[in-house]
Design goal:
This protein has 20 helices and 22 strands. The strands form 4 sheets. The protein has an 8-stranded mixed barrel, surrounded by 4 helices. Strands 8, 9, 10, 11, 12 and 13 form a 6-stranded mixed beta sheet that branches. α1 packs across α4, α2 packs antiparallel against α3 and α13 runs parallel beside α15. The relative contact order is 0.06.
């Protein structure tokens, strides 16, 4: 009997059940003999118990063997022997591990996930000294480490992708061969993100290095990875003249979830999102993970179907919820959509059009209304304006034409000062002073925003560390871009400067725009406030009244200052509805013990009306225009 016969018998026979029957037969045959052997009486005096033992015990043992499923294990081993390739046809075994390396300030941060407890995972989780970050992260390679990094960099700079093979050095000096393939994400010609897959290679007994079939699936979601999705989408568009919807979906403020909850929640959200989208798309199209928190969908559109209704029906579960550590965490998604071939006759053009639509969706104020936006003709005039503004501001940073101004917050009751708010000013080559409003679109460049914020933080702490004694109790309020506030390292960066210049940390106030309440989950915003509090800093909720804040937020999250949006203040003396709103905030501030500050006060009538309504912390041109610190108290 060969292995094939055993396989056929096993597949067509329920051996455990038959083993039970055999076991019962064995007991029936050997039972009387066992009774005699143990001193009992045979039911038949003529019974020869040795005969029963001779035939019954083997049957009994056979039944036990089948009952314990031993043939299953034997069959599996035989199958492995049958399926094992010969040395001539042996293929390299591999296991796939995804990673994302993102630039955060001056260091690289690694987000990693993969199956099992592999040597690669052990190296990364232990964060050994062997884990080195360069433009691309590299794990303890041989002496040719620099050569490998150079090869990666050369490939990235040439076409934005790379593929290299190298060895990792494990704790016991064992070598582990890996294939590393990925792609880079660039902003302003600077590498800011690397996404790829490490494939752990295990050579055959004779050390063959046969060609490896690179995995087509994303390890975390089980969807097609970026390269496979793009390749199959290109093939599909080449073979069809049918209209196709190309959609890019991303998770709103995904980095905030990682910052405040950790990568475990982020991976859970990604896995669930992939499952939800795959269930919605079904066989109507194809779906892949483009990288980080982005997903791509290519969906066939029938001639009589409305594109907007079609994509809306597929992307209906754009708001979802996951259970994480006994909490319910809500998250939202947005999508940019383009139609093939109307918006482009190649995947590259359609991809770009969908991406532009997604960027517009991300910049919309109304999260609920503007989740799905379709491609539209590019406003080249606006694009040119944005690019020129960004270029001018970048030059101002390089040429050190930034200046820090301060504007005081007054206590109208006794004319004392409560706070100094920092305001960034940019001096043009012609000597004029400009505000950030003169540079539209820069918020789309996170690295430029980070450069500006780093300068503002450094100068604020440095300049205000040694105020005159009479002003030493003033709060110093720092305005930052949302991208910096979302970073979980911003408080540590301020900490370092405070230690360097000897500043009072209990006088530092971080201004958080109220609109960020619409991008955070409630719990994440609470964590942000608690994190600031743990470092000894204060939080001011800025521009209150025009975003997503609520009285519940003010009651339950311990903010330190509340700043009313200036649009409610400018015409306060004439607008009774605004007066009612301000009165309500004044009363609530008193109840919860939070100072309420009114901005944009430009007239005496406005100042008097605020005092009448119960608001006595004032800021605006009526009292003092912004100025440099050394001139502010003249």
């Amino acid at each position: 009997m060969n292995i094939a016969d055993i396989t056929k018998i096993y597949k067509t026979t329920n051996l455990p059940v038959k083993g039970g029957i055999i076991l019962l037969l064995g007991l029936m045959v050997s039972g009387p003999a066992l009774m005699i052997f143990l001193g009992g009486e045979s039911p038949a005096e003529t019974t020869n118990y040795s005969d029963f033992l001779a035939y019954g015990v083997p049957v009994l043992l056979l039944g036990i063997v089948f009952m314990t499923n031993i043939p299953q294990k034997i069959w599996e081993q035989l199958q492995q022997l049958q399926n094992k390739p010969s040395t001539e046809t042996e293929k390299t075994m591999a296991q796939c591990y995804s990673y994302t390396v993102g630039k955060n300030s001056n260091h690289w941060e690694l987000s990693y996930f993969g199956p099992g407890d592999s040597p690669i995972k052990q190296l990364i989780e232990k964060k050994q000294k062997k884990l080195v970050f360069s433009r691309h992260f590299q794990l303890a390679v041989d002496d040719d480490r620099e050569q490998i990094i150079k090869k990666i960099n050369d490939q990235l700079e040439k076409n934005g992708q790379y593929e290299v093979e190298y060895q990792l050095k494990l704790d016991d000096d064992e070598r582990l061969r890996v294939l590393d393939r990925g792609e880079g994400e660039f902003k302003n010609d600077k590498l800011v993100m690397v996404r790829g897959v490490l494939v752990e290679l295990k050579e055959g007994p004779h050390g063959q290095q046969n060609q490896l079939e690179f995995p087509e699936k994303d390890c975390l979601t089980g969807l097609m990875n970026r390269s496979s999705f793009i390749e199959k989408s290109e093939e599909l568009l080449e073979q069809t003249s049918q209209q196709q919807l190309f959609c890019i979906v991303d998770i709103i403020n995904f980095q905030a979830f990682n910052n405040f909850y950790g990568y475990s929640l982020g991976n859970l959200i990604l896995a669930q999102t992939g499952t939800l989208l795959e269930a919605q798309v079904g066989e109507a199209g194809q779906i892949g993970r483009l990288g980080n928190d982005r997903f791509g969908l290519l969906i066939e559109l029938n001639p009589d179907e409305d594109a907007s209704k079609k994509i809306s029906s597929i992307l209906s579960p754009l708001q979802s919820r996951v259970s994480f550590k006994k909490e319910q965490v809500d998250y939202h998604m947005r999508a940019g959509v383009a139609v093939y071939p109307e918006d482009g006759e190649t995947l590259e053009i359609v991809f770009s059009a969908a991406n532009q639509a997604l960027m517009r969706a991300k910049n919309q104020a109304n999260i609920e209304k503007d989740k799905i936006l379709f491609s539209q003709p590019i406003d080249f005039k606006h694009l040119e304006t944005t690019l020129r503004a960004t270029e001018k501001l970048t030059c101002a940073v390089k040429e050190n034409r930034l200046e820090l101004f301060f504007q005081p917050v007054h206590d109208k009751r006794d004319s004392s000062l409560l706070m100094l708010e920092t305001l960034l000013r940019i001096r043009t080559p012609e000597g004029q002073l400009k505000t950030l409003k003169n540079y539209p679109g820069i918020i789309q460049d996170p690295h430029l925003c980070a450069s500006l914020d780093n300068w503002v933080i450094n100068q604020t702490i440095k300049q205000t560390a040694n105020l005159p004694q009479k002003y030493s109790d003033l709060y110093i309020s720092i305005n930052l871009f949302p991208v910096s506030i979302l970073k979980n390292t911003i408080f540590q960066e301020i900490d370092k400067l405070i230690d360097k210049y000897g500043h009072r940390r209990d006088r530092i106030v971080i201004e958080v725009p109220e609109k960020l309440l619409g991008t955070y989950s409630y719990k994440a915003f609470q964590n942000l406030v608690e994190m600031a509090e743990a470092h000894g800093f204060k939080i001011a909720l800025d521009d209150f009244g025009v975003g997503h804040g609520s009285f519940k937020t003010l009651q339950e999250i311990p903010i330190d200052f509340l700043k009313i949006d200036g649009s409610f203040i400018l015409n306060l003396a004439e607008n009774e509805l605004n007066q009612t709103f301000v009165t309500t905030l004044a009363s609530l501030g008193d109840q919860i013990g939070v100072p309420v500050i009114a901005e944009w006060i430009e007239t005496e009538a406005t100042a008097d009306k605020l005092m009448e309504l119960g608001i006595h912390y004032h800021q605006g041109y009526y009292y003092k225009k912004p100025n440099k610190l050394d001139k502010l108290f003249d």
